[in-house]
Write a structure and sequence with these properties.
The chain is α/β, with parallel strands linked by helices. Among the domains are: 223 residues, Dimethylsulfoxide Reductase, domain 2 (3-Layer(aba) Sandwich), CATH 3.40.228.10; 122 residues, Barwin-like endoglucanases (Beta Barrel). Helix content is 28%, strand content 16%. It is built from 25 helices and 26 strands. Strand 17 and strand 18 form a beta hairpin. The radius of gyration is 26 Å and the shape is globular. Bound molecules: ligand MGD (2 copies), iron/sulfur cluster and molybdenum atom. InterPro entries: Anaer_DMSO_reductase, Asp_de-COase-like_dom_sf, MoPterin_dinucl-bd_dom, Mopterin_OxRdtase, Mopterin_OxRdtase_4Fe-4S_dom, Prok_Mopterin_Oxidored, TAT_signal. One of its GO terms (molecular function) is electron transfer activity. Belongs to the prokaryotic molybdopterin-containing oxidoreductase family.
Length: 811
């Protein structure tokens, strides 16, 4: 998730003492035990009243990136309540959000999986029978061996899964690499289109999760006078003290304090703009590239581009810097924008107004604000790129700071998402080397189950080999709900997975009976991280970094075991247990990984100290993306073929000419607006509304989705504009039927002018609830019942996650 010790090796202040002092201060109230993490109260002079209460530090390990701090209070070996972080500087407290604070309901839920099971019904039916651990482990080992002997290691696939981030959390790769490896995957479901496209613009080592190509929100706070956010809502996606929602609050205060403003471009008024309606700039989803193009038009027409920057640092803005292969053919970016090349359409604000639903004058005034800002901070969340035209959209947004030459300077950003912390204090369990070369884009796995052997480099983005030798025959799914719920087109995926002649064995490892778990042949119950010793570097805030070490807070229920121990047992069946464990327990590994981190970093506390204090945090410096390149482009070239920002990419032109694309698909050497599959212009009489999604505050994807209290806090509702609701006779609270070309859901209506007309919005991650052997109507309101499975042209990614067309009616 984070990049390791890349840039800022050392911070300004050492917070060991501060953190410890905070705990001591708290001890007056809580009893001395809080000072010592795991030590029982009653020691160190606490009152006798809470004698049997113990405190264990742990963390939230789901994938919103925060890893906020849990301070568990347990009695008689069972957690009774939780406090969060109350240590150290109040600005550095990694306090859990409402979801993290509900973790006790998950740990102690009657829905926990308690013992290993084997499937007895049809795949997807959810019928299982308890078996022993011995039988489960023997079956898994036998199926692995059968798959390797019959097909080869490249028929094994470890599915994308993000349910649990912890230093020793998921040793799946380590085990499978010892057995000869598995089919690799590239990209992720978070940043799929952006990860594929941005390297063509900014260079191959440009990632979505770094502080070299993007600036931190703290830099915006320090120096920006205009923050323009495209599809980015930290108040929803970066909740909790260990995330940037707090940083963002400070950005608003600082930027407005110096007379600047925040512009929040979204198809709905998201929670980050909530209470600040003047910040919301409503846009039709999937059309940000049209807005960016019209802004570019205004900057060019008014002579507001930084031509010197474009000539020195970039390739392909205009004819002056076009590469030889494309010279004299009107293929520059300027040709596209001014209507002298490509589609020959001038990208005026009037042109964009029709597409984006933003009035031309509003576009003009945004362009003018951008041109006059001293330090515009242009930033995109990952919402805009999670569309079928995402590869072009994310580059088009980056064109704004590029044209202005406002990159690598104080208070500016590269158009990417804000940077993430530069320091991972502790690493994870080493995974070893995977001997299999073949690699598929992660969203292509269903195709690889269905017809892997037909997939090639040019028709499916396969890398490492020219074509796949195998279909996927063994699916390994640890801590993920991406077999169905979080993937796309659940009804289609069901067809593929329920055919047992295709994928012959599915292993799922979870804590509750998710929709994906229903497809398991063997289903294993996992001990949760608060039920074992746990360690992880803190999350996404750029303001500080930290590490938490502690636990267990209680014993795992039933027959739940740690994945480390179970994988060691599987390794044993292959005679590689010693290589897997290297003679160490999980606890040994955690200590070793911690000490390895501390050895590289002079400021971290010793092992004995961290065990006592549980939490260590310290402030981080701000980051300015591409500062080194800006300061000296000769000495610090980008990892593009030219060493410059490639507005025109010859590599993309080459891919466009050589890959096999389906009708309607395009790959473009410059960032353009294309509608994309089920994008702008695709609505029709049967499906007259655009539909898109967003990440919801009551869940982390589907994690926490079964906890009723959270569902009551922020319900699963379809956002619909009053204009669209009225014509359908819909009022808030109505139960609706939503149909797309892929499927049908039931969901409650939320009629609100906080969404643009013509588009409806559905929070992603709700639990799919359908009779898959009956009518398949999803009563759970899962958006992936509606998405169509059609990987995007370049990334072969999950663009359909946010691009849908639907009809909505009262159910
Ligand atoms: N349509 C649409 N689809 C999307 C998205 C979207 O925006 N729209 N977003 C996409 C994105 S960005 C992502 S990252 C993916 C996320 O998709 P997933 O990675 O599937 O994330 P979750 O739904 O949180 O599922 C995590 C699973 O891990 C389990 N789990 C939690 N803790 C533990 C543990 O300690 N041990 C074990 N064994 N299991 C555990 C949880 O119960 C849950 O079933 O979804 C993607 N899907
Ligand atoms: N509460 C919560 N937090 C989370 C998660 C979660 O499930 N719940 N998931 C975590 C994970 S793994 C990830 S990857 C991140 C996801 O982070 P993002 O991908 O940034 O989150 P999204 O909600 O998909 O999109 C961000 C915003 O973009 C808007 N949007 C969608 N399409 C468009 C568009 O075409 N144009 C514009 N301008 N705006 C658009 C959405 O309404 C939303 O407000 O969040 C992380 N944080
Ligand atoms: S913000 Fe994320 S990591 Fe922090 S408590 Fe909430 S769900 Fe957990
Ligand atoms: Mo994600």
């Amino acid at each position: 998730m984070t990049t390791e010790n890349k840039k800022h090796a050392v911070s300004r202040r050492n917070f060991v003492k501060g953190t410890f002092a905070g705990a001591v201060a708290g001890a007056g109230l809580l009893g001395g035990a809080s000072m010592y993490g795991c030590a029982p109260k009653g020691e160190e002079g606490s009152t006798g009243a809470a004698a049997e209460e113990t405190i264990a530090w742990s963390q939230c390990n789901v994938n919103c990136g925060g890893n906020c701090v849990f301070q568990w209070h347990s009695k008689d070996g069972k957690v009774v309540y939780m406090e969060s972080d109350n240590t150290g500087d109040i600005n550095l407290q990694a306090r859990a959000c409402l979801r993290g604070r509900s973790m006790r309901r998950w740990l102690n839920s009657p829905d926990r999986l308690l013992y290993p099971m084997k499937r007895v019904g049809k795949r997807g039916e959810g019928k299982f029978e308890q078996i022993s651990w011995d039988e489960a482990i023997q079956t898994i080992a036998d199926k692995l061996k059968y798959t390797i002997d019959t097909y080869g290691n490249d028929a094994i696939y470890v599915n994308y899964a993000t349910g649990m981030y912890s230093a020793t959390g998921n040793p799946s790769s380590r085990l499978l690499n010892l057995l000869g490896g598995y089919l690799k995957r590239s990209y992720d479901y978070s940043t799929n289109m952006l990860s594929a496209a941005l390297p063509f613009l900014y260079g191959d080592d440009c990632g979505p999760y770094d502080d070299v190509y993007a600036s931190s929100m703290t830099e915006a706070e320090a120096n920006s006078d205009l923050v323009v956010m495209f599809g980015n809502s930290p108040a929803e996606t970066r909740m909790g003290g260990a995330n940037i929602v707090w940083d963002f609050a400070r950005v608003r205060e600082a930027v407005q304090g110096r007379g600047g403003k925040i512009v929040n471009i979204d198809y709905r008024m998201n929670e980050s703009a909530s209470g600040h309606p003047e910040e919301w700039l409503p846009i039709r989803p999937g059309t940000d590239a049209a807005l960016a193009s019209a802004i570019a038009h205004e900057l060019i027409a008014n002579d507001q581009v930084d031509k010197e920057f474009l000539d020195t640092y970039c390739v392909g803005y205009d004819e002056d810097t076009m590469p030889e292969s494309a010279k004299g053919q009107n293929k520059s970016y300027k040709d596209y924008i001014m209507g002298t090349g490509y589609d020959m359409v001038e990208k005026t604000p009037e042109w964009a107004a029709e597409i984006t639903q933003i009035p031309a004058d509003t576009i003009r005034s945004l362009a003018s604000d951008l041109a006059s800002a001293e330090a515009p901070f242009v930033v995109q969340g990952w919402g805009p790129q999670r569309h079928t035209n995402g590869e072009d959209t994310c580059r088009a947004i980056c064109m704004i700071p590029i044209l202005l030459g406002k990159i690598g300077l104080p208070g500016t950003n590269t158009g990417q998402r804000e940077a993430e912390p530069s320091v991972a204090l502790v690493g994870g369990l080493p995974s070893g080397k995977n001997p299999v070369e073949a690699c598929i884009p992660c969203y292509e796995w269903v195709n690889a189950v269905d017809h892997g052997k037909e997939m090639t480099a040019t028709n499916a983005g396969v890398t490492g080999v020219e074509k796949l030798n195998n279909d996927i025959k063994f699916l390994w799914n640890y801590a993920g709900n991406c077999l169905t719920n979080q993937h796309g087109d659940i009804n289609y995926t069901h067809e593929v997975l329920s055919d047992e002649s295709k994928c012959e064995f599915i292993l799922v490892w979870d804590t509750v009976m998710t929709d994906s778990a229903k497809y398991a042949d063997i289903l294993l119950p996992d001990a949760m991280r608060s039920e074992q010793l746990n360690m992880k570097t803190n999350g996404y805030t750029e303001w500080y970094t930290g590490v938490v070490v502690g636990g267990p807070a209680q014993d795992a229920p039933g027959e739940c075991r740690t994945s480390y121990d179970v994988m060691a047992d599987i390794a044993d069946k292959f005679g590689v247990k010693d290589q897997f464990t290297e003679g160490k327990t999980q606890e040994d590994w955690i200590r070793e990984l911690y000490e390895a981190g501390a050895e590289k970093d002079s400021e971290m506390p010793s092992w004995d100290e961290i065990v006592k204090q549980g939490v260590y945090k310290r402030e981080l410096p701000t980051a300015i993306g591409l500062k080194d390149f800006r300061d000296d482009p000769e000495a610090n070239p980008l990892a593009t073929p030219s060493g410059k920002i490639e507005i025109y990419s010859e590599r993309l032109a080459d891919i466009a000419a050589t890959w096999e694309l389906e009708e309607g698909e395009t790959i473009n050497p410059i960032p353009v607006f294309t509608p994309g599959f089920q994008g702008y212009g695709s609505v029709n009489d049967e499906y007259p509304l655009y539909c898109t999604g967003f990440h919801h505050k009551s869940r982390t994807h589907s994690s926490f989705g079964f906890i009723p209290e959270l569902e009551q806090v922020a319900r699963q509702q379809l956002w619909i504009n009053p204009a669209d609701a009225e014509s359908r006779g819909i009022v808030s609270g109505d139960m609706l039927s939503v149909k797309s070309p892929a499927g049908e859901i039931r969901i409650e209506a939320k009629v609100t002018s906080r969404i643009v007309p013509g588009t409806v919005g559905i929070p992603q991650g709700a639990w799919h609830k359908a009779d898959m052997f009956g009518d398949k109507v999803d009563e759970g309101g899962c958006v992936n019942t509606l998405t169509t499975y059609k990987p995007t042209p370049l990334a072969k990614g999950n663009g359909n996650a946010h691009s849908m067309i639907v009809q909505v009616a009262k159910a």
